[in-house]
Each structure stands twice: as C-alpha cells, then as structure tokens.
Amino acid sequence: MNTPGLQSLKMAWMAAKEAGDTTTQVQLLRDHPDEQDALIDFIAAYHAMGNGETIDETAPLLPATQKALQTALMRVFGTETEPQVAFATLSELRQSQHLKKADVARGLRLSLDVWNKFENGAIELASLSKRQVERLAQFFHVSIDQFGTLLNGSQPAMTLNFRQTSEAAKKQQGPQKQTFANAIARSTMSAQDKAFWQE
C-alpha cells in the first residue's frame, strides 16, 4: 500500500538520486526497515523504467537484461509478463546469445547434425513432447511458446545455383520434415544422450 510515509520516502529517495547522494539513498533503506521491501520494489521499478532517461525502445535486450526486467516487473506488479523476443528464427536467437552451433549442441546434449535440423526447420514441432520443448526453451531462457514459434519460423538458407535448370528449381523445396525421434535415431549421438532425450 502506498501510504503517505512511503510516498515521502520515495520522494526523498528520488531527490537523493537526482542529487547523486548515494549515502542518503542507502541511509533511507537502513533507517526504515518496515518500508524496506516496498522501497526496494520502487527502486527496482525505477531502474527497470530507465532511470527517468530517454530509452531507445528499438534497441534489442540482452538475455540477462530481459531476465532482470522480468524479475523487476514481477516484483512490482505481482504478475508475470512474458518478455518479447525480437527474433524470427532459432538461428537468430542463438546468435543473439553469442553461441556457436557446436556450443548449443554440446549444451543440449545433441549432435551438431540434429541441432542443424532444428535451425533449418526440419524438425516437426508436433513431434516434440512438452518436456523436450521445455528443455530446449530453458537452455535459451525463453518460454515454450516462444521456442515453438521460433522453430516454426526457422527455414533453411536458400543457396542459388545458376547452373540449375528452371525445372529443378521449381522442384527444390525446404528440408525434408522429420520427427525429433527419427532425427535422434539417425544421429551420431551417444547412446546416453539418445536415452536422455527419449526418456
């Protein structure tokens, strides 16, 4: 509840912040232990909203920033809001986190050929169990719905072959869709890693 006392504390903190007086900011927290949680929530929201500065709303958020923002909003508003992911494909998501394909494959206990199938949109989303999608989404710190959308948006990079006949070009299509279980069975993954994903 935003009591007059708490309102005064917030105003005092804002005045100290604008004056650059960090000692007073810390002292306000120490001197009012009963209001400390509410004041911390206010400070978190203040920082999450950009410290009163103009925010470039088109700038992409780093994964750590997205997580911090989500935590601050949840503490202030008490409801979980899903962060927006500004990517269309799994490849873009991976690159945004500065990961190489080999890093992702190793981190997820997949072979590189199976991860390539994910990025190329060859794995059918419907063939994944909820637990499998959760594991994949947790690795990238996104929701299962966001991961599914990115998987569906992933398409192979088209290469142009100028010697190709127009008839062959018409027949050329994306990768052959397959189930996750089939991709694992045909992969070079170890027996332990296959069992990890098939459990």
Structural notes for this entry:
This protein is an all-alpha fold and 199 residues long. It is built from 12 helices and no strands. Helix 1 runs antiparallel to helix 2 (22-31). The longest helix has 16 residues, at 4-19. The radius of gyration is 24 Å and the shape is elongated. The relative contact order is 0.09. The model has no long low-confidence stretch (mean pLDDT 77).
Protein traits:
199 residues, mainly alpha, 12 helices, elongated
Summarize the main sheet.
none
Shape: elongated
- Integer-rounded radius of gyration: 24 Å
Q: Count helical runs.
A: 12
Strand content: under 5%
Q: Strand tally, please?
A: 0
Helix/strand class: mainly alpha
Helix proportion: 55-70%
Which stretches are low in confidence, meaning pLDDT under 50 for 5 or more residues running?
none
SSE succession? HHHHHHHHHHHH
User: Roughly what is the average pLDDT, rounded to an integer?
Assistant: 77
List the quaternary state of the chains: single chain
Distance between the termini: 48 Å
Write the layout of secondary structure elements.
Layout: H1 4-19, H2 22-31, H3 36-48, H4 63-77, H5 90-96, H6 101-108, H7 112-119, H8 130-140, H9 144-153, H10 166-171, H11 180-185, H12 191-198
Describe what is shown at a glance.
The chain has 199 residues and is mainly alpha-helical. It has helices at residues 4-19, 22-31, 36-48, 63-77, 90-96, 101-108, 112-119, 130-140, 144-153, 166-171, 180-185, 191-198. The longest helix is centred in the first third of the chain and has 16 residues, at 4-19.
